[in-house]
Design a protein that fits this description.
Elements: H1 2-26, E1 31-34, E2 43-47, E3 51-56, E4 61-65, H2 74-100, H3 111-149, E5 159-160, E6 165-166, E7 178-181, H4 183-209, H5 225-245
Antiparallel strand pairs: 1-2, 1-7, 2-3, 3-4, 5-6
Helix pairs in contact: 1-2, 1-3, 1-4, 2-3, 3-4
């Protein structure tokens, strides 16, 4: 019963983690312009894995996708790949987990097969969670590096963040925008951690779901030789009596 509960809780955590990773991958606010040193604060920029956007304090937002792949940094493409791999592995793990639940009967599937499927899904969830955390961490590292290296340039705006976006002009000169962590980064971190926790719970449930092997070994009974002779003598005596009566 305890193993079944752990399996179910791990499935719920894994489903929640996969949802958070998918939401983080779809959100555009992975990096947001830091407006601490910007004179014009009514307009700011932010970007995600698929779009770069400009928003204003009046609520209007304009976004455009990244039309090129070759022009993007290699680390940016690596983050995309990690998030996609995490989502694919998590989705496959969810399908395997549904089939391995104890409350679902699928034909004559044995408990040992379901336990192995639970372990497989748990390993996939762990790898998917690591991919999500790694992708968000790589992106955050690039934001920190860009934030520390961004300097004032009176001639032209610099490049800030990972998306390769141009700087927004300030008043009295151009100040390259610096970017800070967006809410999508935290969603990706939390989703990866929850997915990792769900995978660990699934692996812990594996041992409890495995059927216990019986220690009783069946042995074929064989009559002792003396009993066999007595049985043969009795049969012979019965045959003689039948012939006598006949």
């Amino acid at each position: 019963m305890a193993a079944t509960m752990i399996q179910l809780i791990g499935f719920m955590f894994s489903t929640l983690g996969l949802f958070l990773i998918c939401a983080a991958c779809a959100l555009d606010m992975w990096q947001v312009q830091d407006r601490s040193f910007t004179l014009v604060t009514s307009v700011y920029t932010f970007s995600g894995l698929w779009h770069s956007c400009v928003a204003s304090a009046y609520g209007s937002t304009q976004c455009r996708p990244f039309y090129t792949i070759l022009g993007l940094p290699g680390t940016f493409q690596a983050v995309r790949a990690l998030m996609i791999v995490g989502i694919v592995l998590g989705a496959i793990g969810i399908l395997i987990s549904i089939c391995s639940l104890k409350c679902i009967r699928m034909g004559a599937m044995e408990d040992g097969v379901k336990a192995n499927m639970t372990l497989t899904a748990g390993i996939m969830f762990i790898v998917a969670g690591i991919c999500g955390i790694s992708g968000a961490s790589v992106y955050a590292n690039q934001i920190v590096s860009s934030f520390m290296m961004t300097t004032y340039n009176p001639q032209m705006g610099g490049m800030g963040g990972m998306g390769g976006m141009g700087g927004m002009g300030g008043m009295g000169g151009n100040l390259a925008p610096r970017y800070t962590f967006g809410p999508a980064l935290f969603v990706a971190w939390v989703g990866g951690a929850v997915l990792l926790l769900g995978g660990v719970l699934k692996c812990l449930a594996f041992k409890g779901l495995m059927p216990e092997k019986s220690r009783y070994n069946a042995v074929a009974y064989k009559a002792p030789p003396q009993n066999q002779h007595m049985y043969e003598d009795s049969r012979a005596e019965d045959d003689r009596r039948e012939k006598h009566f006949v």
